[in-house]
């Protein structure tokens, strides 16, 4: 069996599946249950300054959107950082770390943007024996109105400054958690790097309104007739998070900076994808909140079976393996030509590929009607019209029924009437490109 | 004290009066809102959907299911009623397993079609419960149309004509409207007086009036109607039955299955309906199945369907056959009735002869058997009572019409079971009535 053990910036854990800083990691009770279930580590729910804790709303905190069968595909929340006493949290962290020495316990922190505040909290956290800290520069609601969380994460100079303070005032590894509510994720990542961060983690949640109640005309979750934007997470944010992870992984200035991948990770496959794009480990929040801690069993068995199948013995064998394949559009090979092919044995003849292509794409699928001149209902791709766009594949309800098949070099592309070239050629040299060299 | 199932002969109250309501309860409970959402979520919203093509009334099934899934059941109901104003009854009685659900792509994909019939019931129930009316009469046209019979074909025709602003008069031989919806459909498919409730809902459109106890042929004639009305629609169904033609067919206890079902449907107190202990049902269609099941539900001990061909040839679908056997009905194939045994003029049993197929032709094998019975229900098909329709061209025993329902007589249309090519389904009758109304309207305007 593959070895799943993880060493992330010197923090060791039996597997790369950590729980993100959020309700699942808010107290010893949850964290102990999570460790018993098999999670490799936790980012303790964000702690704030000593003093009266923050207060949460007393109405609903979550909004959600659903896919078929009411599967939650996206969730948002308007919760703040921990609303429990600092001392209680510290006591529990210490005890949990003692009880679970092989698991990673990293403490998420958010205090005001003043060096004194950080100087005060860092030693007391270090005293617990925690493995590291994560700087929460991401919380997009509530805390950001108070100059913390995303308010810091949106200003690269602040990120660099606070990271530097932390590095100067603790021996623990410093992981900087980034907000996705920015225009280009590379700037905050570079700032963290410059400040001396040991790693970045991303993404935190995305500014969002999930629903509007059409009876009282208020955003949901609704508190006494009003709503506010919340932080969006869950499967729906995975593509955004993957892209941001990839951007950092392939940016020359941050190359090699360890990344802890977060955002919509729900099963082993999602985790493997984040890792292939350069995440040294992953963090999970929503999936655990939706299905409970047991999902980690599926993640462990799935990842290890896949690694066995691929012959990977350790996680390092595949972390970052997809990074070189993330390219700018302009370097994509324009001579690579694919055509959709419907496997008629698998086809259930729903006709969705047809109507999608007919109404919205390239009119490249032929629909044969039932009982017209003895014909049978049937759908077929017309190669001379197919541009290879893949829409039909994505609307087909049957997995693997429609495949994109690449044309071999030397064969004819019936759509253009030209021979397929085996040579790589991209936009930078294309005759239609006015700027071509 | 009630009687028991084992009491010999023909007796009432075999179950004890409290039992009947449970036994004759709705065959399928309506979907809860949650069940409806889950089921609606399974529809793929097919292009040129096979289910819609398979529906004789061409209901836009993917659209109405999508409307259910977006929690718009009234929108769904309107989509259904646009095509089929008796969508509520059809949701209950259509053999969906041989219509829309048979061709659902999810039947192809995983052997489990979307439960289209149940979803249709969900939507139509919602509209009827809210008494939401979707159709308004157009301004009066001054034209009036006579309709003979008040079955589903006629009601669909009348409703569509009323929508166009025509005045409709329906002449019905019986004392109640509904045709076989009221008298023929199995009790457990249409509980709580649904047939009449549905009519009340449909007739709110206005412009439709009835005369009951009036029979074409004896009380009125086609000629007369042709003179008084701008058009005539005939929806008389199949009023006559095929005869057994074997010895002792007139013995006491030989019952026409349709009459038996009518008795069950019209009974105010099912414990009063007399039923034999040992029953044989002759036939292989929906009527045979319905009669057998209802006999069993009334407390008969042994109910045996005898059909002269095999299970594949039965008119009743596999679902109907399984339903019957699950209720304890025995189905025997390849048996043709030969002679009714009787004593003092009352049924005692049935002699049968085995049959087989020989080069596609049914033949008797010469081997015989015999079954005891107190009652024999005859369900070997109905036919057109053509007596009053002499002037119309009849083909294969039914009225000949064109695609739109026009008969050989000017001003006369027909639809439902009484026309050639009818499939003997409620939904086909509805389609015929609706299409004839469209054609009548086009002709009159
Ligand atoms: C026992 C039984 C069970 C069935 N079960 C199902 C089922 O589960 N699902 C399904 O889809 N179909 C079923 N059918 C078939 C379905 O009921 C018919 O196809 C449908 O009712 C035909 O409608 P219609 O309007 O043509 O005729 P009918 O429903 O037969 O209505 C004809 C009307 O005309 C009246 N009438 C007849 N002659 C005259 C006259 N001379 N003057 C005035 N009025 C007259 C009759 O009294 C009757 O009211 C069943 C049929 C039977 C017999
Ligand atoms: C209810 C809730 C509270 C959260 N609180 C915090 C927090 O206190 N600190 C933090 O860094 N992130 C917080 N997050 C963000 C998560 O740690 C995580 O970054 C985000 O949910 C994306 O991961 P996911 O898609 O697996 O949920 C919170 C998320 C949720 C749903
Ligand atoms: S065939 Fe089935 S899946 Fe397709 S539209 Fe009809 S009900 Fe939906």
Write the layout of secondary structure elements.
The complex is a heterodimer of chains A (437) and B (445).
Chain A lengths: L5 E3 L2 E3 L3 E3 L8 H10 L3 E7 L14 E5 L5 E6 L8 H14 L4 E6 L5 H12 L5 E5 L13 H4 L2 H14 L4 E4 L8 H10 L3 E4 L3 E3 L2 E3 L4 E3 L9 E4 L4 H12 L9 E4 L5 H9 L2 E6 L1 H6 L3 H16 L27 E5 L9 H9 L4 E4 L9 E4 L9 H5 L6 E5 L5 E2 L4 E2 L18
Parallel strand pairs in A: 3-4, 3-16, 4-7, 7-8, 8-9, 9-10, 10-15, 15-16
Antiparallel strand pairs in A: 1-2, 5-6, 6-14, 11-14, 12-13, 17-20, 18-19, 21-22
Helix pairs in contact in A: 3-5, 5-6, 8-10
Chain B lengths: L9 E2 L7 H5 L9 H8 L9 H5 L6 H9 L3 H11 L3 H7 L6 H4 L1 H6 L5 H14 L14 E5 L3 H12 L3 E6 L7 H4 L10 H10 L4 E5 L9 H7 L2 E4 L5 E2 L12 E3 H10 L8 E2 L1 E5 L3 H12 L4 E5 L11 H9 L3 E3 L2 E9 L2 E13 L2 E12 L2 E4 L3 E2 L10 E2 L2 E2 L12 E3 L11 H19 L1
Parallel strand pairs in B: 2-3, 2-5, 3-4, 5-19, 7-15, 9-10, 9-15, 10-11
Antiparallel strand pairs in B: 1-8, 6-16, 12-13, 13-14, 17-18
The complex binds flavin-adenine dinucleotide, flavin mononucleotide and iron/sulfur cluster.
Flavin mononucleotide binds next to β4, β14 and α9 of chain A.
């Amino acid at each position: 069996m593959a070895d799943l053990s993880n060493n992330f910036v010197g923090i060791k854990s039996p597997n790369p599946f950590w729980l993100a800083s959020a309700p699942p990691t808010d107290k010893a009770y949850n964290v102990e249950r999570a460790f018993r279930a098999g999670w490799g580590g936790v980012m303790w729910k964000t702690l704030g300054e000593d003093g009266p804790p923050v207060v949460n709303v007393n109405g609903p905190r979550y909004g959600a959107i659903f896919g078929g069968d009411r599967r939650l595909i996206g969730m948002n929340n308007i919760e703040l950082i921990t609303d429990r006493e600092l001392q209680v949290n510290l006591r529990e962290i210490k005890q949990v770390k003692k009880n679970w020495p092989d698991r990673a316990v990293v403490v998420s922190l958010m205090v005001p943007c003043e060096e004194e505040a950080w100087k005060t909290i860092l030693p007391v956290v270090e005293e617990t024996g925690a493995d590291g800290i994560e700087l929460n520069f991401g919380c997009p609601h509530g805390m950001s109105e108070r100059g913390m969380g995303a308010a810091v994460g949106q200003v690269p100079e602040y990120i660099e400054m606070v990271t530097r303070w932390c590095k100067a005032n603790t021996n623990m590894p410093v992981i900087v958690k980034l907000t996705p509510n920015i225009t280009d994720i590379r700037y905050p990542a570079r700032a963290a790097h410059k400040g001396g961060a040991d790693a970045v983690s991303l993404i935190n949640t995305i500014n969002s309104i999930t629903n509007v109640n059409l009876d009282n005309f208020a955003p949901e979750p609704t508190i006494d007739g009003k709503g506010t934007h919340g932080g969006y997470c869950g499967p729906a944010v995975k593509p955004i998070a993957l892209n941001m992870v990839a951007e950092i992984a392939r940016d020359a200035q941050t190359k090699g900076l360890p990344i802890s991948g977060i955002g919509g990770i729900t099963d082993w496959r999602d985790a493997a994808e984040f890792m292939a794009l350069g995440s040294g480990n992953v963090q999970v929040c929503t999936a655990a909140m939706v299905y409970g801690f047991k999902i980690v069993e599926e993640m462990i068995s799935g990842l290890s079976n896949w690694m066995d199948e691929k012959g990977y013995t350790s996680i390092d064998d595949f972390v970052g393996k997809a990074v070189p394949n993330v390219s700018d559009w302009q370097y994509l090979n324009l001579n690579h030509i694919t055509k959709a092919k419907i496997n008629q044995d698998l086809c259930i003849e729903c006709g969705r590929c047809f109507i999608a292509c007919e109404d919205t794409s390239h009119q490249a699928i032929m629909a044969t009607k039932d009982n017209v001149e003895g014909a049978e209902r049937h759908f077929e791709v017309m190669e001379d019209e197919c541009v290879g766009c893949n829409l039909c594949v994505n609307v087909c309800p049957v997995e693997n029924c429609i495949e994109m098949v690449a044309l071999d070099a030397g064969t004819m592309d019936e759509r253009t009437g030209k021979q397929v070239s085996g040579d790589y050629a991209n936009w930078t040299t294309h005759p239609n490109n006015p700027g071509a060299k | 004290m009630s009687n028991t199932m084992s009491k010999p002969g023909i007796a009432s109250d075999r179950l004890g009066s409290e039992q009947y309501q449970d036994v004759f309860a709705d065959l399928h409970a309506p979907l809860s809102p949650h069940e409806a959402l889950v089921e609606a979520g399974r529809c793929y919203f097919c292009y040129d959907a096979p289910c819609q093509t398979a529906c004789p009334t061409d209901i836009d099934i993917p659209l109405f299911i999508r409307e259910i899934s977006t929690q718009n059941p009234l929108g769904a109901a309107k989509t259904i009623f646009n095509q089929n104003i008796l969508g509520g009854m059809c949701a209950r009685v259509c053999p969906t397993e041989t219509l829309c659900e048979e061709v659902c792509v999810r039947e192809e994909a995983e052997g489990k079609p979307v439960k289209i019939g149940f979803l249709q019931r969900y939507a139509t129930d919602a509209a009827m419960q809210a008494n939401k009316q979707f159709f308004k009469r157009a301004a009066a046209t001054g034209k009036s149309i006579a309709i003979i019979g008040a079955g589903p074909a006629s009601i669909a025709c009348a409703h569509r004509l009323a929508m166009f602003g025509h005045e409709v008069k329906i002449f019905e031989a019986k004392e109640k409207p509904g045709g076989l919806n009221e008298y023929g459909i199995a009790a457990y498919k249409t509980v709580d007086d649904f047939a009449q409730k549905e009519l009340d809902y449909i007739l709110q459109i206005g412009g439709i009036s009835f005369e009951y106890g009036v029979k074409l042929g004896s009380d009125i004639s086609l000629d007369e109607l042709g003179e008084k009305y701008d058009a005539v629609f005939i929806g008389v169904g199949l009023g006559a039955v095929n005869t057994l033609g074997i010895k002792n067919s007139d013995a006491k206890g030989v019952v026409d299955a349709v009459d038996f079902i009518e008795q069950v449907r019209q009974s105010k107190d099912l414990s009063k309906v007399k039923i034999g202990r040992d029953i044989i049902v002759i036939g292989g269609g929906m009527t045979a199945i319905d009669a057998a099941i209802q006999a069993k539900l009334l407390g008969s001990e042994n109910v045996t369907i005898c059909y002269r061909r095999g299970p594949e040839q039965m008119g009743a679908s596999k679902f109907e056959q399984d339903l019957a056997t699950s209720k304890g009905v025995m189905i025997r194939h390849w048996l043709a009735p030969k002679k009714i045994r009787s004593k003092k003029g009352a049924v005692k049993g049935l002699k049968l002869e085995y049959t087989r197929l020989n080069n596609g032709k049914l033949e008797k094998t010469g081997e015989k058997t015999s079954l005891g019975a107190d009652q024999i229900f005859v369900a070997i098909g109905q036919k057109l009572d053509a007596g009053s329709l002499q002037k119309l061209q009849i083909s294969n025993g039914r009225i000949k019409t064109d695609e739109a329902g026009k008969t050989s007589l000017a001003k006369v249309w027909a639809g439902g079971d009484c026309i050639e090519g009818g499939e003997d389904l409620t939904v086909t009758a509805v389609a015929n009535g609706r299409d004839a109304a469209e054609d009548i309207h086009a002709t009159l305007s």
